[in-house]
Design a protein that fits this description.
Elements: H1 2-5, E1 20-24, E2 28-33, H2 44-59, E3 63-68, H3 79-84, H4 87-92, H5 94-103, E4 109-113, E5 116-118, H6 120-126, E6 130-133, E7 138-140, H7 154-162, H8 164-173, E8 176-178, H9 179-184, E9 190-191, H10 197-209, H11 213-223, H12 232-242, H13 245-259
Parallel strand pairs: 2-3, 3-4, 4-6, 5-7, 6-9
Antiparallel strand pairs: 1-2, 7-8
Helix pairs in contact: 2-5, 5-6, 7-8, 11-12
Length: about 260
């Protein structure tokens, strides 16, 4: 981790055939879904790798950028595995629990989406705090066409992102949303050329990283708190930040700059 401590990327320290390629920096981690032969379909190995990564980012909070290799984010859950799962597997929430863990990471998660983000791939994207995409994005939840429902987060996260009416239409029809519509309905916040998608994700991460880490963690936690917990959650978090040395340092610097 010497290079990461210096702020430069470290080489991915996982095998070439790993379903999740990792690049670590001092303030962020880039995780690339890496199953190009099946358009990055999310299998059990991918889920296991996500849990390992989440454990790392829970212990040492950093920004997470999620992306995919080969011009695709993720074409969905691995249908070959999914077909063999039974009722007990459904109740275990194999994908759902991994995506919940991603969503609940202390620092922001940025999903950089290219090409297909379908089914479980869309649900992983919904777990991110910020989603950006290329103009080739095709995102949606076709699960009902396969005899199942979108049970790894779409049924509750999608309406929080685009509203009840739009989410119901998308989930019940199973239709795919392309990039321009995704931008218009707020499913993604910006579109970028494929060649600069990751640069755009890093630019967002740079902007976040300039802010106070504790304030960023508190903002994410309060933002995701249930409505009934507000404003108490806000005020308690603010009370802690009001006593922090970093608040005094940053405000003092701000006031000194104004006086120049």
């Amino acid at each position: 981790m010497t290079d990461a401590a210096a702020g430069s990327p470290t080489p991915a320290d996982v095998p070439d055939d790993s379903p999740l390629r990792i690049e670590r920096r001092a303030d962020r981690v880039v995780a690339t879904l890496n199953r190009p032969g099946v358009r990055n379909a999310i299998d059990q190995r991918t889920i296991d790798a996500l849990h390992v990564l989440c454990a790392e980012l829970e212990a040492i909070p950093r920004i997470l950028i999620l992306t995919g290799t080969g011009g695709v984010f993720a074409s969905g859950a691995d249908i070959a595995e999914l077909r063999e799962r039974r009722a007990d597997d459904a109740r275990r929430g194999i994908n759902a629990n991994a995506f919940i863990r991603v969503a609940e990471l202390p620092m922001p998660v940025i999903a950089a989406l290219d090409g297909y983000a379908l089914g479980g791939g869309a649900e992983l994207a919904y777990a991110a705090d910020i989603r950006i995409a290329t103009s080739s994005l095709k995102i949606g939840n076709p699960e009902t066409g396969l005899g199942i429902l979108a049970a790894a987060g779409a049924s509750w996260r999608l309406k929080e992102i685009v509203g009840d009416a739009r989410a119901a239409e998308l989930l019940l029809t199973g239709r795919t949303v392309e990039a321009d519509e995704a931008l218009a309905i707020g499913l993604v916040s910006s579109l970028h050329p494929q060649a600069s998608l990751l640069d755009a994700a890093h630019a967002i991460a740079d902007r976040i990283a300039r802010n106070d880490r504790d304030a960023t963690i508190a903002t994410k936690r309060v933002f995701r708190a249930p409505r009934a917990e507000h404003p108490v959650a806000d005020l308690e978090a603010q009370a802690v930040l009001f006593e922090s040395p970093e608040k005094f340092r940053r405000m003092t610097e701000f006031l000194e700059r104004k006086q120049k």
